[in-house]
Input
Amino acid sequence: MKLHRWIALNSSGRRIGQEHPRAKFTDREVELTLWLREQGLSLSEIARKMEVSKSTVSRWVSGSSRGQPAARWLRRDYGTQNCTGKA
Output
């Protein structure tokens, strides 16, 4: 069975989100931060919970960082694995 992952690309064809070469945080962490903000937590409270700086939280919430929508998706296969878990 082939394993694969989906990579988000922006309109210029560059990787975005957690697949970007310099990404330090997963998409899930960013999504959780946005959800916490929707629940009414302050930027400082979120920063403390997520163990990131308040300015990082601010950039995620405002959309200035990690705010690009995926223009298309690229499927990347990596390795093969059969049902017994052996390559």
User: Anything to note?
Assistant: The beta strands are 2-9, 72-80.
